[in-house]
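Quick one, tokens below. Sequence please?
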């Protein structure tokens, strides 16, 4: 980062870094302040103020914020370091992490169905970002980006089970499992570009209408990466 000013005499660089709680609490007022700070995301602030007559170029190496604290208390990876004296280019800094991931399954067998029917899942194991709605069986994209979906379908007892993976009602992929005569599992993976608000779900087909539960049949997905801004 480089800042030139015709009138520079005094430089003031203030860096403030507010981090998550580190020390045991001492009193109630401090507890409150600390709690409010804890609510907010960690914040870094940089202020440069110049006054005076001389033309003073200022060069600062800039480091990205630390990533979020890991589960066991380890620090996240530091952001990409800028090159001293060279203005930061777009895309150099670490993009914010968007947390979108779900994993659901069938505990009960479903079907047979007479018509193609939206498949509902009775077991939600993971739903980061609350992106999967168990009432509709649908995933809703939170951001424009590229997402991955995995579908596993099982059939048992000479049954057939097949689903379509659909995006906003449009058929994208099919998974077909047929039990002759024992166990059958089939899977498919789709990588889809979605816009925020787009929906993805599974439709159980009447041609192969009986899908096995007991967590043999599952549906999962996550954001691979958001679109470039
Ligand atoms: C998402 O994509 C749509 C269509 O390409 C575009 O109109 C919209 O501005 C994008 N939204 C964001 C937040 O980038």
């Amino acid at each position: 980062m480089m800042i030139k000013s015709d009138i520079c005499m005094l430089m003031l660089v203030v860096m403030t870094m507010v981090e998550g709680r580190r020390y045991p609490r001492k009193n109630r007022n401090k507890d409150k302040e600390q709690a409010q700070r804890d609510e907010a995301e960690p914040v870094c602030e940089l202020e440069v103020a110049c006054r005076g007559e001389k033309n003073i170029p200022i060069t600062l190496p800039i480091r990205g914020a630390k990533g979020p604290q890991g589960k066991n208390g380890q620090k996240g990876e530091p952001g990409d370091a800028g090159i001293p004296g060279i203005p930061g280019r777009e895309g150099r800094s670490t993009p914010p992490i968007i947390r979108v991931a779900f994993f659901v399954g069938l505990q009960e067998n479903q079907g047979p169905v007479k018509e193609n029917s939206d498949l509902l899942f009775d077991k939600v194991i993971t739903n980061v970002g609350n992106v999967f709605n168990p009432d509709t069986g649908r995933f809703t994209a939170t951001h424009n980006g590229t997402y991955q979906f995995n579908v596993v379908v099982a059939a048992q007892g000479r049954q057939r089970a097949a689903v379509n993976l659909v995006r906003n009602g449009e058929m994208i992929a099919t998974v077909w499992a047929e039990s002759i005569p024992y166990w059958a599992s089939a899977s498919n993976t789709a990588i889809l570009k979605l816009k925020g608000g787009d929906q993805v779900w599974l439709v159980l087909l009447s041609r192969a209408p009986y899908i096995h539960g007991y967590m043999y049949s599952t549906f999962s997905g996550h954001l691979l990466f958001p679109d470039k801004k």
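The longest strand covers residues 43-54. Residues 144, 195 surround 2-acetamido-2-deoxy-beta-D-glucopyranose (CB under 6 Å).
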